[in-house]
Design brief:
By secondary structure, the chain is an all-alpha fold. It has one domain (8-159). Helices cover 93% and strands 0% of the residues. The chain contains two helices and no strands. The protein is rod-shaped, with a radius of gyration of 65 Å. It starts with 7 loop residues before the first helix and ends with a helix.
Length: 164
Amino acid sequence: MELVTPDFGLLFWQVLTFLTVLFVLSKFAWKPIMSGLKEREESIENALSEARKAKDEMAGLKADNEKLLAEARKERDKMLQEAQTISVSLINDAKEKAGKESQIMINAAKEEIQTSKEAALAELKNYLASTSLLIAEKVIRKNLSAENAQQELVKDIISNSSQN
């Protein structure tokens, strides 16, 4: 039974050794261990604080980024709208210009046609007049080949001119 119940001397030396080790540890090891634990705790808290700040900063940057993206989208939509308006305006201007130019060309063609028509009519009149004179000359020569006919024609012309 001696193993189960320790002796008083053994118990005394165990307590004395424990207290000595406790004193030595508290004097030399306890403060560095506690300061190391405290530093570790502070560094963990600082790291967590830094992580929270970084998370908040990232959230702010994300919000700013979303704002910039929204503004860029609005600007892009505005530019597309302006480009579409400009293209429609250019198309309308081109159509209007083409219409004016075609109208000018049509008017010029009409004038040219009218001028050509008048020239053709004048040429036709001249041709008809010269042909008529030629025919009249041939008819008069044939009719006036006799001397009687010539004298009657002269008398007739004189009498008609005196009446006018």
